[in-house]
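As a next step, the fold was encoded as C-alpha cells, giving this record:
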Amino acid sequence: MYQKVDPGTLGLIMSYLLQVSSYLTSTVLLQTQVESEMVSVQRIFKLSDMKPESTGFDVTHSLRSLSKWPSHGKVSFKNYSASYKPDFPSSLLDITIEIREREKVAVVGRTGAGKSSFALAILRILEKTQGKIEIDDIDISKVDLEFLRSKIAVIPQDCQAFSGTVRDNLDPEGLYDDARLIRVIEDSCFSHGFADSSEALHWILVDGG
C-alpha cells in the first residue's frame, strides 16, 4: 500500500501517528487528575448532606445545674445498643455495666470487638439505638453535646500535638492560668530538662513535634 502513497502524504501520516501516543498519555493523565479532583467534590456533597449532630439539650438539666458535673465520675450503661448508621448492625449490643467512681476499668477484646465504639458512645459520636448511658446518674443524651464533650477527656492511641506552644496544646481555650498549667507539667515530669517550668510551658512545638 505504501507504494501507492506519495512520500509527502506518508510523512504527514507518520508525523500524526507519532503524536498519537503523546496525546493518549496526556488524555490518561487528565482523566486521572479529574477523577482525583472529583473526590473533593464528592466529599463536599457528602458533608453538605450530613445531618447536624443533635445537641440533646434538656431544659431540666441547665448548664447552671451541671456546673460541677460530673463530680464523682460514675458511669453506667443500661441496656445500651448503638450502631454507626441506622441500617447498620449494632456495634454495641445490649450492654449493661456500671463503673463506680474512682474505679479504673480496662476494656479488652480482639479487633472489631467494640472497644473504640465504647469510648465513642460516651462522647455521643456514636448515637444510641436503645438504652442509655448515665454519668453521675444523669442521662448524657439529655445534656448539651458541646458541654458534655468539654467534660470528658480522651487520650488517643496515636497522640498528636498541634503546632504552637505547650500551653496552647494544654489549654487551647485559655481557661486556666499559668500557675495551674505549670503544676500539671511538673506533675507529669515534662518540665525535667528545662531551666524553669515556665520555659517548658511556653516551649514551641513545630509540626506536631
In short: The mean pLDDT is 82. The helical segments are 7-49, 115-122, 145-150, 166-170, 178-187, 197-201. The chain has three domains: 2-49, 75-150, 164-205. The CA atoms of residues 191 and 199 lie 8 Å apart.
